[in-house]
Amino acid sequence: MFSQDKFSKMRFERFSNLRKVKNLVEAGGKGVYLYGSAAIKEEYDKRLKNSKIPIYHDEYLPDFTEYQYDLEMFIFLNYDSLYRRELELADKEKLEALEAMGLEYGATFFKRQEHLENAILLRWPEKMLPTGEASTAFALTPWAKDFLYGLSNYSNIVQFGGGGQGKTYSPIAFMVMLYDHFIHTKSGAQCSFSTVSETKLKSSIWSHLTKLYSWRNKYTFSKYAGTASVAPEYTYKRRNLAGKYIEEGGTMKGILLVQGAKTARQIDKLTGQHDVMARAYLLDEAQSTGPAPLQAYNNMFLHPRWGWFLMAGNYELDEDLLGINTTPSDGWESVNENTHMWESTLKSPDSDLGHKSLVIHYNNELSPGMTDPAMAKKYAKFLMTPEKKRRLYKSVEEEETYEAKRFWVGFRFEKKKENVEKVLTPEILKEFGAAEKQDFRTLFSVASLDSAHSTERDRSILTIFNVGVDERGYPMIATASVLSLPKPNAALTYYKETANMIKDRLVIHQVELAGYSIMDWTQRSQLLEGLRELGVVFHHMIYQQHPPKEIGMNEVTKTLERPIELETIPTFANGFERDIKTYAHEKIANRITTGAYLFRLFVEKGRCRNINSSILQGVPNVKSFEEEMCQRIFEYTTNHNEPKLKLDDKSIFKRKRRFSPDILDTFYQVFYMLYVNFGIHPDRPGLGSMKKKKVEKVIDNKIWDARLRFRNKPRS
């Protein structure tokens, strides 16, 4: 029988022979070690005979007859087929050895990942400095080898956890190697990576790629490597002799998946060529990415012979793409923060794709650089070390914060919300009479529009409000109708049709067309122009702008604005200040939060009516009243060390609840308009700059309609 001693001796001899070839190559010579494999020798001889096939020909295959690096990549890619062929060609003694070791050690008696490691050491060799540190572009740390193990045994890999462990860097290095291996074939390889931030794309991912691809050795190690050029739009391509970029040989490119962009358009970006020989895709910042990458999965990997789907990020929510794809097959109770690897299945937000994946979790506390002083010294630039931890977290208290746990331990931690409060609850609405039916005369109708057909899960909502006064002349606002605007059939006429639709509804509900409506300004310029052509003028709200500091004209929206006086902050359970006597721009982070604050304030002053489940009747795809109206929360954020009131993150809200708070946004907008653009204050009589004569006539007690009865005592 084939013994373990024989196996160990054989591997030692092969390592020794490989080292000789490596030394020969580094000295400027050429050499290829075939591992004593009959299957590899067969392929080697075949390549020699067919070496006249020109590059980019349909039958051209990577040539590994000159350089060991190219051979190592060939073995890695064809590992299983070479093993099967070796069994067919092996003599009795070798057959016994192969069967004893099994597929794990292949035709070469090396593991598949070891061939990838060999290729890495040839392409990015390690040079030991006098300090004891390793100088290289890619360090084969134990955790980097775990990723290579994943590449060798799985088509889908999800990496998450602490920062600084190469979750992005290692996949980029692999893409460089894969792309270059097929760069002379006709269809080549398509290697792409995406993120949600152009800053991240440029400063991190593209920077990694440039560093890895441009790394130059003193010796020639490959027939292919490093022969592409930087092309426009974060792309690497081949050039022909005339210097023009060509499609042959594939591409390596970065893709920006902007949050909120249409999924169908993102899918088109991702799919690209269908006839490529190999494909690798890295979904970076998976926790902040929409559903497109997983929805494009089957299309992306339908045709390539070799394919890898790679995902990386920092854990945020169970419901986002990273969260659902890190969930262990045996459930979260089967792992803990010290578990390094487990299996999962790929999932889109809508379905389980059924493909097995490997999850690699990086707990920086267990980093080889933390547990092994020799590793910390050798790979100080590539691993987290005790010294780095001391620089990051100077106290035990700092280590225990949510952000520290998220970016150091990197496990599935739930953020503890402190100093937060829901904007509204059913109890608050009931307490202050806001859920009751309208009991005042309508003097004006106003409208608020959230036009959002460009993104999934968003509805286009037009909400109508009745505005009047109570018996003392103080403002009262009631919800009249919540309308969902259907999406026009023709994309080319979308804005024109939508503008006509909006005007029709404003007319039906007796909303004055000029200046009595508001909408979100963002990315709606064409719709605004279409409305103006019809004589409909909207106030505009830019969600993330600061609240106005003084009365004046907004330079962007061209509308008059007033600063918001803060006499009270909504009553928070955690004891936030109430009597602060200041202005919104000093205490509130942005305009959409200001709108939410004003909504809450009008409710608490008893100025709102008809905010109940009846307003949602007839709206398609609507959730329950509490889900739609009572799930946004206030929290305090730190801006230059000054606490400011801020709504919870909308993108997180949408990912967690699978719908957009577009109905609620229309409420925030209208209360912002009533105060900022009209000067309507909940504690002051009258309706600001709305047509004053009409208001004065109604609140004159001599002509007040005595039949009108107020069921509720006036609140102030």
Descriptive report:
The chain has 716 residues and is of the alpha/beta class. The protein has three domains: 1-140, no CATH class; 168-362, Rossmann fold (3-Layer(aba) Sandwich), CATH 3.40.50; 427-557 and 589-631 and 659-700, 2-Layer Sandwich (Nucleotidyltransferase, domain 5), CATH 3.30.420. 36% of the residues lie in helices and 18% in strands. The chain is built from 27 helices and 25 strands. Strands 3, 4, 5, 6, 7, 8, 9, 10, 11 and 12 form a ten-stranded mixed beta sheet that branches. It is elongated. Mean pLDDT is 86; it is low at 569-580 and 699-716.
List the helices and strands and how they pair.
Blueprint: H1 4-26, H2 38-49, H3 68-77, H4 79-89, H5 92-101, H6 112-123, E1 127-128, E2 134-135, H7 142-153, E3 156-161, H8 169-181, E4 189-195, H9 198-214, E5 229-231, E6 235-239, E7 245-246, E8 250-256, H10 263-271, E9 278-283, H11 292-295, H12 297-300, E10 306-313, H13 321-326, E11 341-347, E12 352-362, H14 368-371, H15 373-378, H16 386-392, H17 396-399, H18 402-409, E13 420-422, H19 426-431, E14 442-450, E15 461-469, E16 475-484, H20 494-508, E17 514-520, H21 525-533, E18 537-541, E19 552-553, E20 560-561, E21 565-566, E22 582-583, H22 584-587, H23 591-604, E23 608-609, H24 625-629, E24 633-639, E25 642-647, H25 650-657, H26 662-676, H27 692-699
Parallel strand pairs: 3-10, 3-12, 4-8, 4-9, 9-10, 14-17, 16-23, 17-18
Antiparallel strand pairs: 1-2, 5-6, 6-7, 6-8, 11-12, 13-24, 14-15, 15-16, 19-20, 21-22, 24-25
